[in-house]
């Protein structure tokens, strides 16, 4: 998502989106370099080799990498801190119930024979036992993942973006991201417009072209309809975990 709004980030498929040295500097652009640098096996086997693949950051530049799975990869905090303890970390978080449904919707689009959401989400539905080992559920236990990161990085080096506000107020959220990175607020309201067809904010004029640009079809899909009772059970499951997360980060995301 940041790659679309801010440019200059290594994309999950290993490609580089755009380059805009004034805003964010350069990216990991080594040939054959794959994303998920800090969660890949090769990192543990060849840490120096992998580090050597990273480009030099010149004065006035910031090197960024974007891999959503880092936040939930146990080894990632240690690996990243052993490379640089000054790394700044940005995490986009959204209501974990919506996140789980979004996750399931995405997987279903690739595997149409997937069991029903309800079958995967519960160990025993009538007893209200949620299956926290199912990835779509586990990822949303933000407080748990954060604990591992806090063993390696102080909270001051982390910034949490509200996935909800990123849609309702993208400029506001990106303003805070730019502040956190110590950048001038270059991306502002004037860069966005609300696209009624897409139902999401889009960029008025990306640097790579002169025409407006929205995120791709896989972002902002219509979610699978889930039974109201199931949603309630999941909300109950996440409520105390969300509170723990709010308390740790000192920010209320209002997911209830
Ligand atoms: N401007 C704009 N346009 C489209 N979509 C937007 C935008 N801002 C935030 N979102 C939300 O981003 C969600 C998809 O992001 P992902 O987390 O799946 O991205 S990533 O693949 O992990 O990088 C996607 O989730 P779904 O709605 O579940 O598809 C969107 O809700």
Automatic annotation (TrEMBL):
3'-phosphoadenylyl sulfate binds at residues 94, 102, 219-223. Residues 74-240 form the Sulfotransferase domain. Coiled coil: none annotated. Its EC number is 2.8.2.-. GO terms for molecular function: [heparan sulfate]-glucosamine 3-sulfotransferase activity. It holds the Pfam family Sulfotransfer_1. It is an enzyme of class 2 (transferase). InterPro entries: NST/OST (IPR037359), P-loop_NTPase (IPR027417), Sulfotransferase_dom (IPR000863). Disulfide bonds join 202-214. Keywords: Disulfide bond, Glycoprotein, Transferase. PANTHER family: HEPARAN SULFATE GLUCOSAMINE 3-O-SULFOTRANSFERASE 2 (PTHR10605:SF10), HEPARAN SULFATE SULFOTRANSFERASE (PTHR10605). Belongs to the sulfotransferase 1 family. This is Sulfotransferase. It comes from Conger conger (Conger eel).
